[in-house]
Amino acid sequence: MSAATTTTLSTRFQVSSRRYSLLVLRIKLFFSIAIKGPKTIHFWGPIMKWGLVIAGLGDLKRPAEKLSVSQQVGLIWSRWSTQIVPINYPLLSVNAFVAGTGIVQLYRIWE
């Protein structure tokens, strides 16, 4: 190997080492966030609620007679997620999708 190749390899290693340390720093910061990090319900609530969106999309194959009108409350929960402190935007987004699937289901029931 020539000296230029060795220098280029060591420079690349330093750059990737810096990127790795920045990545580790960001991961540590993500896990240490006290308000909205993965150690709180503000993180896991919306993650688990995406199951309701998937279930709502699965209900599109069901006959409209078997759907429940009382279960379509996504708009109410969307409003609620803007009133809690701090505002939980991931929860707001998943509730908006739940409301969207609920509106589609209500339209199918009404029709």
From TrEMBL:
Subcellular location per the Swiss-Prot or TrEMBL entry: Mitochondrion inner membrane
Keywords linked to the UniProt accession: Membrane, Mitochondrion, Mitochondrion inner membrane, Transmembrane, Transmembrane helix, Transport
Pfam families registered for this protein in UniProt: MPC
Membrane-topology annotation of the record: Multi-pass membrane protein
InterPro entries assigned: MPC (IPR005336)
TM stretches of this protein: none
GO cellular component, one term: mitochondrial inner membrane
Any GO BP: pyruvate import into mitochondria
Keyword Transmembrane helix part of the UniProt annotation: yes
Similarity annotation: Belongs to the mitochondrial pyruvate carrier (MPC) (TC 2.A.105) family.
Role noted for this protein: Mediates the uptake of pyruvate into mitochondria.
Record's protein name: Mitochondrial pyruvate carrier
Taxonomic lineage: Eukaryota, Fungi, Fungi incertae sedis, Mucoromycota, Glomeromycotina
